[in-house]
Design a protein that fits this description.
By secondary structure, this protein is α+β, with helices and mostly antiparallel strands. Helices cover 23% and strands 27% of the residues. The protein has one domain: 60s Ribosomal Protein L30, Chain: A, CATH 3.30.1330. Strand 4, helix 2 and strand 5 form a beta-alpha-beta unit.
């Protein structure tokens, strides 16, 4: 098992690794909509918050040699589900190639760290070398 902390990545809001890797599967911790240089400072609106979350995921994935093309599953948490679901989807889909969307779960929750509107975690798979 490998425990990854990515240099220049988002500052954890609790005691956890950015990602944990087991047998080529990579479990990326839920990312918040702040930026590495301004922890706890959030932009206004679901589009901006979703963009920041996706950029933080991109940073973590890139830091361990992966990208969104390796993501098999995403789990999304929204604090204002009815209000933000469409806006989240509009921004989220731009990070994946057409026809290559990962499996996904999206749930409404009562609260997130920093009073964020969105948090997303992903499961990725490291490519298997041909035998």
């Amino acid at each position: 098992m490998l425990f990854h902390m990515v240099s220049g990545g988002p500052r954890p809001v609790a005691p956890f690794s950015h990602a944990v890797e087991v047998d080529g599967w990579v479990f990326v911790t839920g990312q918040m909509p702040d930026t590495p240089g301004s922890p706890g400072t959030l932009p206004i609106g679901i589009a901006s918050q979703t963009r920041n979350v996706m950029e933080n995921l991109k940073t973590v994935l890139a830091g361990i040699g992966l990208g969104f093309e390796h993501v098999a599953h995403a789990r999304i948490y929204l604090t204002h589900f009815k209000e933000d679901y469409a806006g989240l989807n509009e921004t989220y889909r731009t990070y994946f190639a057409a026809g290559r969307l990962p499996a996904r779960t999206c749930v409404g929750v009562t609260g997130l760290a920093y009073d964020a509107r969105v948090e997303i975690d992903v499961i990725a798979r490291r490519p298997v070398a041909p035998v």
